[in-house]
Specification:
- The protein has a domain of 185 residues: Vaccinia Virus protein VP39 (Rossmann fold, 3-Layer(aba) Sandwich), CATH 3.40.50.150.
- Helix content is 43%, strand content 22%.
- It contains eleven helices and nine strands.
- Helix 7 links the parallel strand 4 and strand 5.
């Protein structure tokens, strides 16, 4: 018996209900299995990440058995960063992707970690601030649905494992598109549904038995570590996300799956 409620993976109709049009129409938004008023979800997300921030990096490495770092390095390579480029890391949290990007852009470049939650930004700074070769990483606390940079400001924009927490998913992607210069590149690395049924069953068992147990034991919150896999079950599948990104104006959209589809990286270009 699961230690936590194990929700079914959403079908296509229910996944559509997580998108902007339905949320604006109903005035309701979900964070995991809980439903909030549209303008209240952001507060629930902020409370969630305030709770998990102190042990966020440790728990992510533990729960993924370290493979998240392999995914991030592989996804970052798909972005094709070059020395001197300007990069925006949306929902950048503790800065893992920003660190990888900064090592590719070099000191002539600029990387901005952009996140609404100050506790997450603060948790990542000990990995960045002491190191002179990462001095070109900056921090901005801000809302990913209203990015506080001008149009055409960045050569690349990326988001890793954070976009699904926004209230208005498409608005967040549209903002990333807006701040990219023409020809700028885009990366979204996000969790998805495992491809094979047998592996999906193992993944479900792990997500709703092991993760909440370890979350309670180590981080003091089973709920926080059950909420994360709940949100994954509501997120668009790779082909749906590719179509969405194309509709928002990204060209040459491609994707790559990792570990039987647990994680998927999408890349595109602003035309």
């Amino acid at each position: 018996m699961a230690l936590w409620q194990n929700p079914d993976w959403f079908d296509a109709g229910r996944r559509q209900e997580q998108l902007d049009d339905h949320i604006v129409k109903t005035g309701k938004a979900r964070f995991g299995l809980r439903t909030f008023e549209e303008n209240e979800k952001v507060k629930a997300v902020r409370r969630h990440f305030n709770r998990v921030a102190p042990k966020y990096d440790f728990m992510n490495s533990l729960l993924s058995l370290g493979i998240q770092h392999v995914w991030k390095r592989a996804a970052l390579r798909m972005l094709g960063l070059r020395p001197g480029e300007r990069v925006l890391d949306v929902c950048g949290g503790t800065g893992d992707l920003a660190i990888l990007a900064a090592r590719r852009t070099g000191p002539a470049g600029r990387v901005v970690v952009y996140d609404i939650n100050w506790a997450m930004l603060a948790a990542g700074r000990p990995k960045i601030d002491p190191f002179p070769d990462l001095a070109h990483i900056g921090y901005v606390q801000g809302d990913a649905e209203h990015i506080s940079f001008a149009d055409n400001s960045f050569d690349a924009a990326m988001v890793g494992f954070g976009i699904r927490n926004l209230t208005h998913l498409q608005r967040g992607f549209a903002e990333m598109h807006r701040v990219l210069r023409p020809g700028g590149r885009f990366l979204c690395l996000e969790f998805s549904r495992p491809v094979h049924g047998w592996f999906r069953s193992l993944y479900d068992f792990y997500s709703f038995n092991v993760m909440p147990f370890l979350g309670q034991l180590i981080a003091g919150s089973a709920e926080s570590y059950a909420c994360l896999p709940e949100t994954i079950r509501m997120f668009p599948l790779p082909e749906e996300l590719s179509a969405m990104l194309t509709q928002l104006g990204f060209g040459r959209v491609t994707c790559r799956s990792f570990t039987d589809g647990i994680a998927v990286a999408h890349v595109g270009v602003k035309s």
